[in-house]
UniProtKB/TrEMBL annotation:
<dbReference type="InterPro" id="IPR019587">
    <property type="entry name" value="Polyketide_cyclase/dehydratase"/>
</dbReference>
<feature type="region of interest" description="Disordered">
    <location>
        <begin position="97"/>
        <end position="116"/>
    </location>
</feature>
<dbReference type="Pfam" id="PF10604">
    <property type="entry name" value="Polyketide_cyc2"/>
</dbReference>
<dbReference type="InterPro" id="IPR023393">
    <property type="entry name" value="START-like_dom_sf"/>
</dbReference>
<protein>
    <submittedName>
        <fullName>SRPBCC family protein</fullName>
    </submittedName>
</protein>
Amino acid sequence: MTNLYDPIEATIEIAAPQDQVWRVVSNLRAMPQWSPQVAKTFIRGPIRPGAKMININREGPKIWPTTAKVTRFEPRRDVAFRVKENWAEWSFTLEPTADGSGTKVTHRRETPKGTTKLSQRLVDRFFGGAEKFRGHLESGMNQTLQKMKTSIER
């Protein structure tokens, strides 16, 4: 049985220097361009720890807002934000590829404190249960990374 709390991770190698990849990955306002789930992102002020976000998410006919706060912002290395409604932390971590010719990007979703009861009920009722929901998230994460890679390497 799939546990909704287990981390979900997707990784890709991009044939570009970290600076170039960082400019794309760290621009959270542009997430609707990359993520199949994010329709709109609003952030007031610069992207840095403590910055607050509002996301409008979608899946088919379902549309829902979430609020989040940037929890980590280490230039050229790491950016993360925690969603208030379900306690999930989403992150992008960059490191050089093994041969040093590009950048490895890891997109991760973690729920170290679990998720809210409301989130669990919504996943069960509207998203087909934990296993289907996790599969959907993992697929979306891989799509996000692939779109970024295609754009950066163009």
